């Protein structure tokens, strides 16, 4: 029924928008932005764009080819805009090899090649940015898509960039003053499945100001994600008992999970082009207010949910849980760049300052009716994260003749991360107060009492200082049809870790040599070969290097941090073929291979755990190796060759695999989907000054295995459609329907108490969980001025 409503919505929107004529597209003028350290800035279409050209898209946007030696895929905002993605995470659902293990309607931790987000380097304007996650990854739902000029997928690393890019690099290039002229306003709203409406408004303006060019933009975006979850739990699994559904049922949980918030953001840049001297100052700021509300009921029956419940229990309700997490996040980044041409080449200096702050207040109140008298438990947890980074880079490009350049330079970064997690718990028995309790009209928070002063959790009050000093040198050139680059980077890092609760302090230093080489060879004017080899690394998770003992963290086993962990290192190879199709289209195929050493895996120290006999103290250690490989296909082209020049098609398919050995034997890298694909089309209706299109996406199952738990995750398919009408040469009205197939995420959990139980398949719990969200409809108007 919801799919029928979605189809009707698209059809009515198209008919209502096709009654008025027209539009035109402005000419482009050349621009000379400062060359970024990020590969891909030398895309074939590096030109100033007008606001009218962005708002009124007469032509279909296709994937670009980069002229840099490295293998880079470039996707301009034209490629994404018509589907009106809310965040850059939403936009990346349409590019090759990016998967997510997020909740339905969430696209946060990008997994390039299906690998953990910590294996992917995230850059904004070529610079690193801090985030809240312990694996050092940056959630891409922190960046509204409206700020973005283009996305670059850098498949293999270069000595120009920091080497934290085992899977590759995603460089998010924001709109800047050198490439945008004029202004536009955007007004829209989102309608969700439960009837909630959220606003989405913003504006961007770029113009000459004084001797340079200024760009400023802002956006206010409502965020909302209502989901319904259901879990069935058993004391055994089908592995041991084919009839487990009837014999081993334990409990059922029904949960509503709603994410409700607003993002406020602004970005600005000012650029000067004085011929031999070019300078740019840029920055962005994002503030998020977000509330995550969960209400969960556990029942002792697979289907029934009787109430009210009396004490002693004569209904089905086992527990009633109310969980609310209020989150405030602030991200900002400032960057200054100066380039100077000399007779002996070009010198470029860069300064960056970035900060991420998160304050959250989480309460969880629960009544346990599966005891007499019922017990009330209340938990309060306050989490403060403050992550700051300052960086300075200097490099010089020296031409030495014959189309060959020598590039050398240095990079310094000082990072400090402060974490403060404090908590308190109230627990008491309830007697007369719950003799009659109706879970449909009452809530556990009715029994809340004041909390005592909060105490820091074990390992929750710490400081990490990480100072790195890098040097690099490379040689690059172009000889006829061949572009090439070869270089090496030396990364020296000094890490200081302080557990402020215990006073423990640890120092850890390491040096890495990271060579790399890339080439592109034009077989013809349309056909191109690419090849790269590079050594990269991944630094340990913050929670793994904090010197704290977390009791019963992994099942009933304790987790002891290891501040002396070294980074994982990887050798990687990429090889590909691209073919230009017509004037704008590209088709490509790429194979990749990664060999990872010094893997960080949780190991058994042999010491008895806090829960007694049969449990152990576990600790992350550098041990073993793994490998990942795959093949990636992508296509982005018009059908002009068969007479359909106003029809654009796109698609990509990635087949992914890996191998690793852990405490239980052989497995894939945790969370790596076996495949991901998406395909779609855009159809221009020039006589009607309108367009419509659709995209379909599916990713394969993924399996995670850690001590005490195994998870298998599958996702349903995702369908999006849009229709648009262009009016008066400066106005576009666009309607978008997302998640039209009612996206569903399913997870199977195998849970064990000890390592021995996991090896013997002696289950503590077997759980089937599913969550679902309904379609989202968006109506947006953009006006150029």
UniProtKB/TrEMBL annotation:
- In the UniProt record, does the keyword Transcription occur? no
Q: Where is the signal peptide?
A: 1-24
Upper classification of the source organism reads:
Bacteria, Pseudomonadati, Pseudomonadota, Alphaproteobacteria, Sphingomonadales
Main subcellular location? membrane
Which portions of the chain have biased composition (kind: Polar residues)?
A: 227-244
What positions does the domain TonB-dependent receptor-like beta-barrel occupy? 403-701
Q: Which family does it belong to?
A: Belongs to the TonB-dependent receptor family.
Organism of provenance: Sphingomonas glaciei
**TonB-dependent receptor plug domain: from which residue to which, for each copy?**
66-169
Q: What is this protein called?
A: Outer membrane beta-barrel protein
Q: Does the keyword Membrane apply?
A: yes
Region named Disordered:
226-265, 295-314
